[in-house]
Specification:
It is a single chain. By secondary structure, this protein is an alpha/beta fold. It contains 17 helices and 16 strands. The strands form two sheets. The chain has an eight-stranded parallel beta sheet, sandwiched between helices. Strand 13 (about 315-320) and strand 14 form a beta hairpin. The chain starts with 8 loop residues before the first strand and ends in a 6-residue tail after the last helix. The structure holds nicotinamide-adenine-dinucleotide.
Length: about 425
């Protein structure tokens, strides 16, 4: 580990801090809702003395969340939620300029990734903040003695929420979790517009391919998939969607996309993007049918959506073609290109979601942490939604920051909507 001895944390190079600071400040300008929360937190100190361990993508937006939590009185420790998503300059700046212990190095190996999780848990958190549920699962499987000290936690992403709901169902979940992902001001915007734009950004930065006229296969038409398909279409790609849900498949058809099984799409696609939260969505039978030169990437949480071991078995070797692009030589002579080692391409090859969208996601995180401190005693070992009042407040503040006003119900309309006898 590249431990920085004088400062708490493990970052690539503390000398990168100055560059990180500029990046964090740039993101902050696009995060007006979080700024308002931070101002109030500084005054009211709602998180005073709370030990909070956060396992999130270490980006400039996350830095602004960590600073907001710290300014609200929390003792924050941060580690990476993905080995490839860390912005090393941001990690350095958090340690050097904000005294927030940060354990994250872009490209860290498996053991370092888990050593960093352990380091965050050494903090003995009262609140956990997860993106993918790695803190919670590590706590209940390896650090069980720390569980009684935890009041509650929050979860950022779809895959984490699915894991945590499974834990709640079989009794493994030991404290309440607020599902930030389920807030409307999170998934309607972050998953759709954030993942939509930044996934395309990651593909383009990695490959510099022209999307116009390209056959792009999007696997999964959920919140993220809709965003990716919409933005790819806008750039002129011929978008094909694959799905396992008949409702979502139908929605994709009516949104104007071709829908077909992956076994068919595999034969014609130029670029494949998986974003399902599932595993082996691209598997051996698909690699065998793909065209020479096909590009494969993933924007779902874990790097299991593309069956990389199967790809390796079919190939005689791999070599780097460009940064974040590996060329796999198939034994039959074709070449397939895997981007970002099959990890979240928007974070591996680009910068993740734009700050303006993370403003709402992280406003939900900050207000959910405050809510947990006030209400944890009333909550069970379940996954709870973000309270509607918080969701609405964030939407209102975001609109205000954009200088946009929406109409309000008149008293007459309020009465009409609340009454069953009206309209007869
Ligand atoms: N890249 C990012 O920055 C980012 C941001 C948010 C969420 N995520 C992750 O992206 C993934 C998807 O999130 P979401 O919010 O869109 O979830 P979602 O549940 O809204 O959508 C997932 C879709 O995939 C479909 N699906 C499942 N298995 C499939 C298969 N084998 N083939 C085709 N379709 C299949 C489901 O039917 C569903 O419609 C999750 O892992 C989530 O954690 C990534």
């Amino acid at each position: 580990m590249a431990t920085t001895h004088s400062l708490a944390g493990d970052v690539k190079d503390i000398a990168l801090a100055e560059r990180g600071k500029r990046k964090i400040e740039w993101a902050n300008q696009q995060m007006p809702v979080l700024q308002l929360i931070r101002k109030r937190f500084i005054k009211e100190q709602p998180l005073r003395g709370t030990r909070l361990s956060a396992c999130l993508h270490v980006t400039s937006e996350t830095a602004n969340l960590a600073i907001t939590l710290r300014d609200g009185g929390a003792e924050v420790v941060l580690c990476a939620s993905n080995p490839l998503s860390t912005q090393d300059e941001v990690a350095a700046c958090l340690v050097k300029d904000y005294s927030i212990p940060t354990f994250a190095i872009k490209g860290e190996d498996h053991n370092t990734y888990y050593a960093h999780l352990d380091a965050a848990l050494e903090h003995k958190p009262q609140i956990t903040m997860d993106d993918g549920a790695d803190l919670v699962t590590t706590l209940v499987t390896k650090r069980f003695h720390l569980v009684p000290g935890v009041i509650g936690g929050t979860e950022e992403t779809t895959t984490g929420v699915i894991r945590l709901r499974a834990m709640a169902k079989d009794g493994t979940l030991k404290y309440p979790i607020i599902s930030v992902n389920d807030a409307l001001t999170k998934h309607l915007f972050d998953n759709r517009y954030g993942t939509g734009q930044s996934t395309i950004d990651g593909i383009l930065r990695a490959t510099n391919l022209l999307l116009a006229g390209t056959k792009m296969v999007v696997a999964g038409y959920g919140w993220c998939g809709r965003g990716i398909a919409m933005r790819a279409k806008g750039l002129g790609a011929d978008v094909i969607v694959t799905e396992i849900s008949p409702v979502r498949a139908l929605e994709a058809v009516m949104d104007g996309f071709r829908v077909m099984p992956m076994a068919e799409a595999a034969k014609i696609g130029d670029i494949f993007v998986t974003v399902t939260g599932n595993k082996s969505v691209l598997a051996q039978e698909h690699f065998e049918r793909m065209k020479d030169g096909a590009v494969l990437c993933n924007s779902g949480h874990f790097n299991v959506e593309i069956d990389i071991p199967a790809l390796e078995k079919l190939s005689s070797g791999k070599k780097p073609a460009r940064p974040f692009v590996d060329e796999y030589a198939m034994k039959d002579g074709r070449r397939l290109y895997l981007l970002g080692e099959g990890r979240l391409i928007n974070l591996a090859a680009a910068e993740g979601h734009p700050a303006a969208v993370m403003d709402m996601s992280f406003a939900n995180q900050a207000l959910s942490a405050e809510y947990l401190l006030q209400h944890a005693a009333e909550l069970g070992r379940q996954v709870y939604p973000v309270p509607e009042a918080i969701d609405r407040q964030i939407a209102r503040l975001k609109l205000e920051s954009m200088g946009i006003q929406a109409d309000r119900l008149t008293p007459e309309q309020e009465h009409y909507l609340a009454s069953w006898s009206e309209g007869t």
